[in-house]
Amino acid sequence: MAVVLILFIFLALYVAAVYNRLVRLRNLAKEGWSGIDVQLKRRADLVPNLVDTVKAYAQHEKQLLEEITRLRSESIRPHSVKEQAETEQALTITLRKLMVVAEAYPDLRADTNFLKLQKQLSEIEDTLQKARRYYNGTVRELNTKIESFPSNVVAGVFSYSKYPFFELSDASARHAPEINL
């Protein structure tokens, strides 16, 4: 009888420990996503200023500027992780195009406001890359715990499911936009 009681206590402690670890990992993944969300918001807030500055110099780039504005609006709406990654990938590619267009306008490249916005965008992209790595690292750890035996049994009992990675499908979007100061 004492052996059964000891085994039951051991099992209960094990389940509690695994459950608490899963809770911790889930919260870290949510924190990681929050970090990405903050940086995406900072970038989205920067885009209208960048568009306005370029618009003053590059009147005939209207279609590109409208596309950036549309993607910026799309990026601040709530999405699933996969949809957010796709939207951010499209915005990053379009911002790259904007930087290429800016190269054709010497006055724009010399504008102090534009240079400041480029620098801020570059800093945000670097921070965003770090936030993505943190999120994906915590998701990897959580998903591994959810899939590994015997913690997968506890995860199944408490209805834990895998979190999606923040992945960019286009290889060119994996790099921050080229910002030439």
Describe the structure in your own words:
This protein is mostly helical and 181 residues long. The chain has a single domain, classed as de novo design (two linked rop proteins) (Up-down Bundle), CATH 1.20.1440.20. It is built from six helices and no strands. Helix 1 packs antiparallel against helix 2 and helix 1 packs antiparallel against helix 5. It is rod-shaped and about 85 Å long. The C terminus is likely disordered.
Properties at a glance:
181 residues, mainly alpha, de novo design (two linked rop proteins), 6 helices
Task: Report a brief summary of the structure.
InterPro entries: LemA-like_dom_sf (IPR023353), MamQ_LemA (IPR007156). This protein has helices at 2-57, 62-75, 81-102, 106-110, 112-147, 151-157.
Name the overall outline: rod-shaped
**Major β-sheet annotation:** none
What structural category do the secondary elements indicate? mainly alpha
| Rg result | 23 Å
The appropriate CATH architecture is Up-down Bundle
In CATH, what is the class?
Answer: Mainly Alpha
Q: Could you tell me the mean pLDDT?
A: 86
Distance between the termini: 75 Å
Strand runs, count = 0
Domains, number? 1
Q: In the CATH scheme, what's the topology name?
A: de novo design (two linked rop proteins)
CATH superfamily: LemA-like domain
Order of helices and strands: HHHHHH
Question: Percent range for helical residues?
Answer: over 70%
Low-confidence stretches: 173-181
Q: What is the beta-strand fraction?
A: under 5%
Helix segment count? 6
